[in-house]
Amino acid sequence: MTFQKLVIGASMAIGVSALATVPAQAGTLAGATIGGTAASDYLVYDSNATNTFTVANTSENVQKVLSGNAASPTGNVELAASSEQASFDFSKNTTLTGTIGGKTLTLSSLTSDDWFGVGQTTTTYGLNNLANTWFNQVLSSNSITSPLLGAFGYTQQTLFNSFLTKGGFQRFSDPNISYVNQDDTSGLISIGLAGHFDAAPLLGLPSNPLFPLQASEIVKYTYDGKTDYLYSFKATKSGLVEISDKISHSGNYEVTIKGVPPAAVPEPSVILGLLGIAGVFATQRKFKKASI
Q1: Do 217 and 173 touch, CB atoms closer than 8 A?
Q2: Are 110 and 220 in contact (CB under 8 A)?
Q3: Fewer CB within a 10 Å sphere, N or C end of the chain?
Q4: Residue 27 backbone phi and psi in degrees, to 5
């Protein structure tokens, strides 16, 4: 009986130890597919140690390039890739959809409806819409004040108008998705947006190497019954640049969604530990029956 108790105690200790030492895992987007009203308007970028470069638009490549993280963002999928072309249809979107933690997540490029309001193809400075909200946040988050704009020959309104006229909102509507990961404990979903580490030229402002202006492209998401927009004004250096222009994808902007933690699945070691405990109890019952 003493020996049996020792075995049971050891088995329970192993099982509890296994439960206590299971690390938080990071799930990734699975079954990634491209859709939307402009489902063919996308590019897939793979990467090596220094550059990103386009590869074939296949489902295998889409899934492959989404395997990175903040420390190593790797390649990306660019939605609405024609946004900088004169022929770009600003009324259509391109989406990336997959499952993560057992739930569907859709990431989308933006349309004029998103920026300016439903049915609006343009906007003016000062209106209550995403275009004005985001633009004002770009300036305030980067400490771009009125006196500083004045030194560059702009007011906030004239810079907005210039950005609008030159297709700036279209340019920031094509998110480059580099990874989609989920913490299995907290449920937090982290999404990498590949962009410019210094986005000043995209806003029509001169660059300052000591104070890079940082602003990500915007991604629209639908998850667990909610639709909203994500963007960031803080980038880390990705260690990569697009092979042709030597500047794109140099910054990684991480945005997050408060996701639903996936159902816990025991580690193999935990299962073995529990089976061991069950086996010992079954053996103990047999010993008891034999002794009666």
Answers
A1: yes
A2: yes
A3: C
A4: -80, 155
| Nearest one of 41, 55, 47, 85 to 242, comparing CA atoms | 47
| pTM to 2 decimal places | 0.83
With residue 228 as reference, give the H or E element that holds it: strand 226-230
Token pair, residue 51, equals 């550059």
244: which DSSP letter? T
Strands 241-242, 51-55: pairing is parallel
Supply 262's token pair.
Answer: 């996936």
pLDDT tens for 68-86 read: 999 999 999 999 999 999 9
Q: How far is CA 288 from the centre of its chain?
A: 58
Taking the C-alpha atoms of residue 54 and residue 61, their distance in angstroms, rounded to an integer, is 10
Angle at 178 between CA 50 and CA 207, to 5 degrees: 65
How far apart are the C-alpha atoms of 127 and 57, rounded to whole Å?
A: 39
Burial class (CB in 10 A: 0-12, 13-18, 19+), 40: exposed
**Length in residues, the chain:** 292
- The Cα–Cα gap between 173 and 93 comes to 9
Q: Which amino acid is at 24?
A: A
Query: What are the CA-CA distances from residue 266 to residues 14, 102, 150, 269 (Å)?
Result: 14, 16, 60, 8
- DSSP class of 184: T
**Residues 191-219: pLDDT tens digits?**
999 999 999 999 999 999 999 999 999 99
What tokens were used for 159?
């810079």
